Backbone:
């Protein structure tokens, strides 16, 4: 089968989802109001609460949620065959991710841009809030610590990407000033920013840069990159959003769509055949069951709880007009779905033969970013005639920039968590920006170096990311569903995805629990038990909250 068919079917379905289904959800279910005064205007402070052009805000939201995960998950999940991965990405984007992301922005903006974690206490209950805050903290800890390792590895393996990756920060700082101070228009800023970024991608192979492989100040090259990344992320999280976060995310969003355009254009021109099996009946020994693991292996690109954190943590604070949440939230999910689809095509059709594909996918967990870079570069070379090094640099920069923007936002969100804890437990110093940021960085570095020694400690708990992340998505959908019930609006558009996720997450945790027990991995076994207990409590809280609200609604209607 030609990969062109996958591309057209996938993109076509997601486009219909945006133009038809998202319009219905936002207008009939969420009932967005163009006259509603958003928190960005109510609480405007020039730092976190900043009314923002919807295209720039889309860039921030999209690139914050589109890290390495929408590439990593699908590039691993094709081991079960490309059809299951394709169907989950496409239908998950339309009926799960888009509704979840737009709904999280809506719920937060209707409640003074409070995070989903903070909203849970008021809407569902304090016990649910406590569970939510712990799950959020774990997810952010995993994302920040692991993405630092992913970026460091890519910079070591592809030194040609170093110049454009770090140069993009300088470009973003300049763009931020140009936009915020209204020196020139958005179109010209976009053209200049993209030109500068791609100019550095062109120069990257000519000016490769690597840190010394021998230890410097007691640190290896990977350890040094990880420390530098966290220093940068800490500074970025302290700056006003307009200075670096918004422009960096916006220009990264534009370059991703250009990169996707190049990759999809190469697919059209080269028309490569899909060599991976549609359904892999000969999976390697040790590969877990496709159900439920498919639905937690592919999170970003179908539905991801991390998106709810971004939507309610930073995006809702910058929403200019409420109807913008359809473009920012739902179309942001469509953009990530398109990235996940590109990853599926790259790792399914980017190899010459089935034997070449099987040489990569000989164990569960193989493939990932490396398979995407290799397969995608092959397609770019065949379709557009790009030099292999240039093609790999282009794709590596794409991966690293998105992982980096996710770290930027993730650390800022982790700072918000500490500040919210400070507010809940009345710890004054924890409510301040700098101490909360230092706590966030300290926890990430403690996991990175305390658990791993070499800076890769985050990988220790990464096996539980998928289930924890989907539990978080379920919690977000629970908050949205209860809000809809309180307003007397149809709830099944969010309740059905909520029930599905809770079922798959619970099954996934049980399967992983047995796996950790069989391996004698007692640390992950214990952590899995904690998350499993949280999942069960969420199910109980969901049932209780929804039942109470439905009864309250009936009682209100029955009153004369």
Residues:
């Amino acid at each position: 089968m030609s990969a062109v068919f996958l591309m057209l079917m996938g993109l076509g379905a997601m486009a219909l989802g945006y133009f038809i289904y998202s319009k219905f959800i936002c207008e009939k279910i969420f009932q967005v109001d163009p006259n509603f005064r958003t928190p960005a205007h109510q609480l405007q402070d020039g730092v976190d609460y900043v009314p923002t052009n919807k295209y720039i805000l889309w860039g921030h939201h999209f690139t914050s949620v589109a890290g390495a995960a929408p590439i990593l998950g699908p590039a691993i999940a094709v081991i079960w065959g490309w059809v299951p991965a394709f169907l989950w990405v496409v239908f998950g984007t339309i009926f799960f991710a888009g509704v979840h992301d737009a709904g999280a922005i809506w719920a937060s903006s209707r409640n003074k841009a409070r995070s989903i974690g903070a909203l849970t206490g008021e809407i569902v209950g304090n016990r649910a809030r406590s569970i939510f805050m712990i799950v959020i903290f774990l997810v952010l800890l995993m994302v920040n610590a692991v993405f630092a390792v992913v970026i460091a590895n890519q910079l070591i393996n592809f030194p040609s990407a170093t110049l454009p990756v770090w140069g993009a920060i300088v470009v973003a700082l300049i763009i931020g000033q140009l936009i915020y101070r209204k020196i020139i228009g958005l179109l010209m800023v976009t053209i200049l920013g993209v030109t500068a970024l791609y100019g550095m991608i062109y120069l990257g192979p000519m000016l490769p840069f690597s840190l010394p492989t021998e230890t410097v100040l007691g640190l290896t090259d990977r350890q040094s990159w990880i420390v530098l990344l966290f220093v940068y992320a800490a500074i970025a999280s302290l700056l006003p959003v307009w200075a670096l976060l918004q422009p960096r995310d916006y220009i990264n969003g534009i370059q991703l769509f250009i990169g996707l355009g190049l990759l999809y254009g190469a697919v059209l021109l080269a028309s490569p055949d899909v060599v991976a099996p549609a359904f892999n009946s000969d999976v390697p020994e040790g590969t877990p069951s496709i159900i439920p693991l498919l639905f937690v292996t592919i999170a970003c690109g179908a539905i991801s709880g991390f998106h709810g954190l971004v939507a309610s943590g930073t995006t809702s604070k910058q929403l200019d007009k409420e109807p913008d949440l359809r473009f920012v939230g739902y179309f942001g999910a469509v953009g990530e779905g398109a990235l996940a689809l590109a990853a599926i095509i790259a790792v399914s059709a980017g190899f010459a033969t089935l034997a070449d594909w099987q040489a990569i996918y000989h164990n569960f967990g193989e493939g990932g970013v490396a398979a995407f870079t290799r397969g995608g570069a092959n397609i770019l070379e065949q379709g557009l005639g790009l030099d292999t090094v240039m093609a790999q640099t282009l794709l590596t920069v794409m991966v690293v920039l998105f992982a980096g923007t996710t770290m930027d936002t993730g650390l800022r969100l982790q700072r918000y968590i500490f500040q919210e804890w400070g507010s809940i437990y009345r710890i004054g110093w924890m409510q301040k920006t700098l101490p909360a940021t230092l706590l966030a960085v300290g926890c990430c570095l403690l996991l990175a170096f305390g658990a791993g020694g070499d800076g890769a400690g985050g990988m220790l708990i990464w096996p539980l990311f998928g289930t924890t992340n989907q539990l978080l998505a379920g919690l977000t959908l629970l908050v949205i569903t209860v809000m809809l019930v309180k307003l007397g609006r149809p709830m099944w558009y969010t309740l059905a995805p909520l029930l599905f996720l809770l079922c798959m997450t619970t099954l996934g945790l049980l399967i992983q629990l047995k796996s950790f027990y069989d391996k004698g991995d007692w640390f992950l076994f214990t952590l899995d038990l904690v998350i499993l207990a949280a999942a069960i409590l969420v199910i109980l809280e969901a049932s209780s909250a929804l039942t109470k609200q439905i009864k309250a609604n009936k009682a209100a209607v029955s009153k004369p």
About this structure: The chain is about 75% helix and 0% strand.
